[in-house]
Amino acid sequence: MGRSGRPRKMEGTVFLRPRSAFWWIRYRNHGGEIIKESTETKDRQKAERFLRERLDARDDGTLSTMLSGKKLTFGGWADWFLERRSKPPFRSENTHAQNLNALKHLRPTFGNVLLADITPEAIEGYLCTRLQSHKCVKTAVGIRQLGKLKPATVHQEFRILTRILNVAVKRKRLGINPCNAVEFPVSVSQSTRKPHYMSASEQTRIELLAPNYLKSAVTILVETGLRSSRNYYR
What we know:
By secondary structure, the chain is mainly alpha-helical. It contains ten helices and five strands; from the N terminus they run βββαααααββααααα. A hairpin with a 2-residue loop joins strand 4 (about 135-140) and strand 5.
């Protein structure tokens, strides 16, 4: 018997495979069939944790559900996410609208890709491409290109992608979130407008000139320290 109480032949192993940068695992399912999987990580401890999760899932009878996620595309998972984790009461209508808008851009790149096949390199490539893209708007004469997308806009898409894949990890449809190995290539804080903090003298001048109904609003905003949603989520 192994340390966990399992028969030795039912335990798994972590190994390196030729021409692969990641650790692989080998274990048997309940039927005795040998299963080999890439852990998608170069960290030995993370690979061993991945193996333990697979063995626990096998013992709990949830391994088949977990492995079925390896046949799940990003587009299919995004549909589930929008229905089960994006709409109220899980999230606000505004958040749902942001998720829908981000997925309009994420789907063309990742829609038909299996969750297990999404790599950090693919995500980095997507981010670099988006940062070089221009904002497009529909006009009466056709599509018009404006300036380049703001890094904050692309960063929001990256955050939403991370959130979608984090849920996939929690639901045992994905072993490790590839976004965790990606560093956003641009400093977002330098590309966004810095907040202006109102001084006492500015507050006094505004209250002198503002109509009565605005004076109360200004006082509430200052005294309670309310911030715009943009600064809150930064």
